[in-house]
Amino acid sequence: YAKAHSGDNYQFFDKDMNTRAVERHFIESHLRQALEAQEFVLHYQPLVNLRSGLITGAEALLRWNSSERGLVFPPDFIAVAEDSGLIVPIGRWVFLEACTQARRWLNAGLQQISIAINISTVEFRRRDFLAGVRSIIEGTGVDPKFLQLEITESALMQDSKAGASILRELKALGLQIALDDFGTGYSSLSYLKQFPIDILKIDKSFVQDINGGNEDGIIVSAVIGMGNSLKKRVIAEGVENVAQLDFLNALQCEEGQGYLFSRPVPADAFAALLSDGISQKLEVARRFAF
Ligand code: C2E
Ligand code: MG
Ligand code: MG
Ligand code: MG
pLDDT of 234-251, one tens digit each? Predict the structure, then answer.
């Protein structure tokens, strides 16, 4: 197709493809050593009760502290990790590290909060996934009721029978299940009936432009209403300003997460947030809302 175009077009297209292939190759080859070189780190973003401003949990978010590139964010390496299978050992590290951190906070006498961990569809579908979860829970002694696994609709799509059975086993262990990025996948509302899901996370793309009567606002309002009626916890992602917060509060959305409260931060900074609380910051944000 590129050849059909003449001159500059062809050149630019070709160069762009080449750059991307080189970038991908760089990431994959360095990702292989990143685990051993201990270049991964988890940052934590608070989940917040929207009425009280109190922290209800943390989402663990992976960062790659590359010796050559500095801090690299998931959108730049998760897909490569999934395609190469590296997501499996990386995901196991994430799970172990998050559980270990939960123990550290508990041992330090901090309030026990739940930790949300993102699980790739590639990990979820593996036969040894459950065994891995079990052994890390046993090894770290973390109470499973404080763990939330975030999966996306794609994990449940292909083999829904197998998916349902894994979710049931996770529930039997005592973990909570969240459907992440809700509304962006091939959402089928029947998932909510078919699978034991505790939490709906409304994708940030819907939250970004909510105001009064526009389409995103209507969708968010419907999801919150449905989630509340089905007795699920509903969490809005990507809350960046007070107008969004007020809109969500008016619709009785219980929980949210977003830059308005805090960006994802290293474990130490998160512990400081836990002891300081967030409500104070919220008050400040409100005062500037005019
Ligand atoms: P996600 O699970 O939907 O996580 C939320 C993403 O939204 C995070 O991006 C977070 O930094 C960002 N975010 C939070 N609040 C705001 C806000 O107010 N505005 C905006 N614009 N963004 C906000 P991040 O950390 O870059 O992660 C991106 C995605 O990568 C995650 O989306 C998740 O799907 C994936 N990911 C992150 N960590 C892991 C991991 O440990 N394992 C796996 N398999 N995937 C991960
Ligand atoms: Mg998530
Ligand atoms: Mg996710
Ligand atoms: Mg999400």
Answer: 999 999 999 999 999 999
What residues does the ion ligand 4 have nearby, CB within 5 Å?
180-181, 237
Tell me the two tokens of residue 12: 């630019």
Q: Which positions of the chain have pLDDT values less than 70? A: 1-15, 187, 212, 284, 287-290
Look at ligand 1, atom 19, and give the residue with the nearest C-alpha. Answer: 238
Ligand 1: nearest atom to the Cα of 42: 41
Beta bridge partners of 234: 200
**pLDDT of 67-104, one tens digit each?**
989 999 999 999 999 999 999 999 999 999 999 999 99
Q: Alpha-carbon distance 274 to 232, whole Å?
A: 25
ipTM of the modeled complex:
0.99
**pTM of the predicted model, to two decimals?**
0.92
Atom of ligand 1 nearest to the CA of 81: 44
- In angstroms, how far is CA 180 from the centroid of its own chain? 7
151 CA → ligand 2 middle, Å = 8
